Amino acid sequence: MSSRKRFVDGDAIAAGGGAGGKLSKSGGGKRHIAALVLARGGSKGIPLKNIKMLAGVPLIGWVLRAAVDSELFDSVWVSTDHDKIEEVALAWGAQVHRRSPEVSRDSSSSLETMQEFVRLNPQVDVVCHFQATSPCLHPFHIKEALEFITQHGYDSVFSVVRRHQFRWQEVKKGCPETTKPFNLDPTNRPRRQDWDGELCENGSFYFNTKELIEQGNPQSGKVSYYEMLPEYSVDIDVDIDWPVAEQRVLRYGYFGRGTPEVVQMMFCKVSGCLTDGKIYLSAAGDEMMSINSRDTSAIRMLQEQDVEVVLLTTTEDPVEQTLADKLAKRTGCRVMRVGAKPVKDLASELQCSKLLWKDVAYMGNDAPDVDCLNLAGLSAVPADAPVLAINACKYTCHRASGDGVVREFAEHILMQKAKAKSQLKQDRIN
To answer: HSE (CB half, 13 Å, CA atoms) of 354?
Structure first.
């Protein structure tokens, strides 16, 4: 990421430097900096919006991943009143502040919830409030914004985006008044390239000292803004935003430390992924299974991009050898039988192929796959997988087993592969 400079209160601040140490309290000792995500369960626009799946990840998981991976916080918290949100928060590495009913009402403000949080956690000196509805946050955004407080003595910093939109006064229906421009002279209408635009809050984050929160005026004291580029400024308010946000996240979201993995091999369970897990018996006693044509075309897509696909059958859910042979012939894949713990059998396979787990994609669907799902560079489960498998994987598909789910994961793999190549090219340019 190239260094940028921003003028704030007359000072040029380089945003690309190191995070530096945390400023000391007036009485000595470093300040406790906490990340806080507010996630009430009673969202009126989209029920349980904060844990709805967005591009294979719970919405709240995107900001928690960025906060945890930034390694800038003494603690990372989710404030919620809902059991399911608490489960997801713990799975993504956060502590949970179980908010009281008094600050869980529809009329409760974010400030009231933060005031309760700092009152119950007196060790916290700086609260970095992130909104779960802004999923394109990256650790470098956090680092650069937090430096305003830790290195330059600011009390408050919040995220903004530059907009080039001319605003006009609203006129209520039936009112005799005429509208007036707010931010332009219609007789001298500027071209976009001749106008700097306006800075608008994008709602991604608000960083404040505890004292400002306690006083009830968080955007005060020595206050500044942090400008984010438009592509990272996604704010989900209504359900219609979801498909747009999903495409933006797939392109600009943060997928974890380092570059996206360039997958060279994919392991895919046959039963429960490639198929719906059912075995059909003919009148003659022959076993049959159903495979979605979208999935077989997905396998060919991966093979054309030099990704070897290995199909896995298990001793716990065996497939007849004749059926496995037909499957291998139809897909052009090796079919490998693994035991009750696939991770043990696949370790030797990776060693023979001279690959590491980060070079591998894994698609599973149940408890025996958890270790592989955790270890693989990219991993996925169908939408109907049990919770323990969903919590272990890096991508939860929209489709169920046997219903084109392999195609969905293959497209995700190829998108990450293209993203990694693009990032490598950009790094060389930089």
So the answer is: 0
